[in-house]
Every structure is written in structure tokens, then in C-alpha cells.
Amino acid sequence: MVKVNRKALATKLRLRLSKKTVVSALVRLLREEWKRSTDLATNIIYIFFCFSSFSSFHAVILHFKIGTLCMTIIQHELKKHQLWLDELNKKKQAAAADKNNTRFKEDYEKSVKKYEGLVRKQEQLLRVAYYLLLNLAEDLSVELKMRNKGIVKMLVGTLDRSNFELLILVVSFLKKLSIFIENKKEMVDQNIVEKLTKLIPCDHEDLLNITIRLLLNLSFDPDIRSKVIKFGLLPKLVNLLPNENHTQLVLCILYHISMDDKAKSMFTFTDCVPIAMKMLLESPEQPDLELLALCINIAANKRTAQIICEGPGLKMLMKRAFKFKDPFLMKMIRNLSQHQGPTKTLFIDYISDLCSHALHCENEDFSLECLGILGNLTIPDLDYELILKEYDLVPWIKSKLQPGAADDDVVLEVVILVGTVCSDDACARLLAESNIIHLLIELLNAKQEDDEVVCQIVYVFYQMIFHKATREIIIKETQAPAYLIDLMHDKNAEIRSVCDNTLDMIAEFDEEWAKKIQLEKFRWHNSQWLEMVESRPADDDYGDYAGYPDEGPMYDPYLQDADILDRPDLFYEDYNNSIMMDGHLTPEYIDDAGMYGDYHNPYGYDLDDPYIRPEGHLGFVQDGHQVDPYGRALDPYGPEYGEYLNGGGDPLGADNPYYRDYGHR
């Protein structure tokens, strides 16, 4: 019956609309009279709103540009409302300034009543105009035109109103627009989050629900999530969790917020942890995924983890996890186990159950999380050797480390577990004697593209280097140091860091590897310069140099097996044209003739360099000496200080006291 009536209504409206003279008259009347009469504008727009409820009439409405006219009317009304507020505030201030004058007070009260009446009429107009635009926005091209004309700014500006029906419409429109990034950015510029704080919470359930939905759309943006924290919305949202009408939406928003590391700590200042724990432990067999995801994220914060584990918290979580074999709940517990301090020691009581489920549980995901918890238990006083022997873990570990024997996730967790137990000297020796190191090297070759696996394997070597027994095996019996040298310049910063620390330990205990490591570090640090120097074309005249035609080049231009630190030809630009004499470390004092000292003069034997260091008997300038424009001292015994102490002019005579005392060099 409803469908029949709707079709009949559509037919009647189509007949009315087919008479263009009627439509043209309405449009003309609206254009000319909307500023004079709010009631008239409201009624005419309402007529077009009725037509806009049917998509088939949108083309006619767009043809007469009713949407553009509505946006113009809305913009005008918003400006007019701001003028009303300014005028009302002035009268309020005047009444407050002169409290004894009743005339100001009466004038203000009359203005308030008049303002309230005008606002009621204006909000009716705004509501019907926004509704018309919302219907037309079904077409994305029309919505884009609205956005370009500033519809977002108008809608956000209307959020200050108190009319629930108008606010529901405005928030619904904003929710529709918020699925596009460009619109969200404009909403942020208009401070939409600050305006939404007035609506959360509110007494109107429908308005609250649609506002939360809008906030959910906005919460995909990290900047908006930070503003949610800034304006104090987090505790308000947490308090809405017990409300079943909004629980699911609020959980989604809180999950988005919990993805930011900085925001995780803010949950400790709310009632989120006790509420979430209550919901989790009282839920049926499978809790909501949104609730589990939120708990997993907030458990990654140390302070939040301590709150969760207080009292019987951890015990109840463990009991539920082992009962239902829930991998998501166990992932939450795994996040709890990663924090240093008293929280980690609480897991000692559950090592037996964790080992049992890690080895024998049929649910692979659940088994993986149990294994991850064991790998997190870096507790100094824990007897890892007893655990390995009691549960016969060494053969199981060896079987999982065989290339291709297990999934990558399992292999990674096993390697992490090996790195954890290797902190114990007895365990490290036990694993080394079981050929684990060679298996790790083979795994390193097979998984060299997997940065996580590589980093954890290198960390195992780092742990084993601290123990004498395993250190000797790694350095003397394996090629692990060579692999570490290859990884020393890996693109992954974490791998480089662990490699450097491990190689530093190896260099401290083995001189041969120390030289190789030093050489490789030098090569890498100067790689570009060395490549340029070594790529110079070889000189064909080496054999004829210095009268030794039968000898080839004296220095190999390539490193080969020579120690690069003993290659002075790489440090000095013109080293190939000089002869190295025994006993001299650097060739910078060798002249082109292969000699030492001041034998060679670059300006010739008969010419003096005007800027050469003083060669006369006076190699310094005494206080009070006159100098030439180049800073050279003049001869105080020459006629009118006309001769230089050295350089130009005649040499000083033997009668000169300086000559008698010092002589020539």
C-alpha cells in the first residue's frame, strides 16, 4: 500500500512539475522575496524539498538552480544570526555594566525573547534548505559543486545551534561528506572536533548515535585522533561503553585511538581498563573483535599492562585463554608479557602450560602466541636449562629451524626463543653443542631477505658471544663472523646496530678477526673515494721509472691481500711519482726526485720563491721590526731598511752580528 501511494504521489507531482509556468513562478518568487519573508522562503523551499525526495525530479530542480539559491539563503542566514548574537552581547554587557539601570535589563530581556523567536523561524528555514541539499547530494558531481561553494563551512557553523532536529540533519550531512579526505581536512580547519564535544554526550539518543558515527568516520585521520585526546573526548567516549546502543561504535573509535603509541598511555586516566576487562571476561565464548583489538593495543602500554594484571586479572585472562583456545586473547596476554618489571615475573607460574600448548596445541595460531610469550620471558633468575630439558625443547627447536620445516612466523618465534634462553650460560653451551649455530647460519642463508628473521639470528650470535664456550665455537668453528661482516652494512638500521655490537665483541677477543673487521669498516667508510682512486688508468711507464726498466709497478693499484691501512698511495695524490724509502711512514716530505730535505727547489736552483719561508740567518720577526707589504721583516742594518732579511737583495755580510752568531742555514 505504501509503494502504491508513493507511486501515485510521484505521478501527481510529475503532473504538477510538468507545468513549467508554475515552477518558474515559484522560483521567481523565491528569488525576489526570500530576504523579505522568512516564512515565505521556508514554504517555497519546502515545496521543492518534496520534489527532491524523488530522484527523477532532481534534474528539474538543478535546471532552475534551486540548490545554488538555497546555499545563498543559508549563507545569508548564518551571517544574520551572527549579527543578532553580536547585538545581543552588546546589550548584555550594557546591562551588566549598569545593574542599577532597569531600562538596560528590560531591553536585554526583550531582545532575548525576540532573538529566540527569530531563531526558531530561521532554524525551520535552515532545516528544510539543508534537507533539500542533502537529497540533491545523492549525485557526487552535485555534492562536489556544493563543497566548492562552501557547504562544509556552513554545516560546521550550524553545529552551534541547540535544535535537535536541525542538528541531526546537519550531522547526517557531515557524516555523508566525511568519507572524502578533502572534506575531512576542511572539517578539521573549521574545528569540528571542538564543536562535537558539546554533543557528546547529549540527552537525545538519535543525535548522539549519529554524532558518534560521524566521529568514527573522522577517527581514521591521525590528526583528528590527536584532537579527540586534546579536547577531552576520550573519557566521554569511555563512559558511553556501557550503553548498548553505542557500545560497538565507541569500541571502534577507541580502537582507532589506541593505534597511536602516544595515546595508549591516556587510557590509564580513564575507566577504560576495568570496563573493557569486565566486558571481556563476561562476554560469551567469542568476544567482539573490536573489543579484543582494543585490549590488544592498550596492553602494549606498560602502565596499562600493570593495571590489567593487578589482582586476579592475569589469572582470569589465562584461565579464559586456555579454556577457549582464543588466539586473540593470547595475543593480548603476549603484549602484557613484553614489559620489564614485576609484570613479567607473574608469568613464571604459567610456563608449564605455555610450553605444553606451544608444543602440542592443534590450534596453530594459539600455539604461536604461547611460543611468543615464552620468548618474551627474559627473567634473570629463571632456570632456562631446566625448562629445555624438562620439555625436551632442544630437538623440537632443531626440527623447526630446518629450512622449510615450518612457517615463517613459527621460525621467527623459535629464533626469538633461542635468543632468550641463550642469556643463560648453560643453555647457550647446550644449544651450541647441539649444532644450533650451524642451523642458524643455514637459516640465515635461506631467509636473508626476511629482515626480522635475520635480525633475531644476529641477536642470538650476540648473546652467545658473551659466553666463553659458545664464543670459541662461533669464532673458531663457524663462519658466523664472516656473515656478520657482510651484514654490517645492511639497509636495515636494526640489523646494522646488532651486527656492529656483535662484531665489536668478536674483535675484542680475536685479533685476526679484529683486523678483518677494521679493514672492512675502512673500506666501507671510504668506499666512494677508494673506488675513484683505484679506477685511475694504470701508468705504462712504471718500468722505465728511476732507471729500473725491468721492474713493473711497485705498488699494486688494487687492494688484493694487502692491508689497506698500509697503502699510502691511496692517501696522497702524487704518490706514484715518488720513491718510498725505508724508515719513513709518510711520503709528504718526499720530493719528485725521491729525495728528502730541502734539496729540491720548485722554483729552480737559481730562482727564489718570493713566498718561501725565510732561509736567512733570521728566521723570525722580532718585536719592533719593520715589515714589507707581504709581512717579511726588513734588514735593520740595511740602508733605510731597504734590504730584506732573506729573499730579495744581497745576502748579509759576514760582519753582521746575526751572521756571526747564527750563520746561514
From TrEMBL:
Residues 644-665 are annotated as: Disordered. Keywords: Membrane, Transmembrane, Transmembrane helix. SUPFAM superfamilies: ARM repeat (SSF48371). The chain crosses the membrane at residues 44-64. One of its GO terms (molecular function) is kinesin binding. It comes from the Eukaryota. GO terms for biological process: cilium organization; microtubule-based movement. GO terms for cellular component: axoneme; ciliary transition zone; kinesin II complex. InterPro entries: ARM-like, ARM-type_fold, Armadillo, KAP3. This is Kinesin-associated protein 3-like. It comes from Elysia marginata.
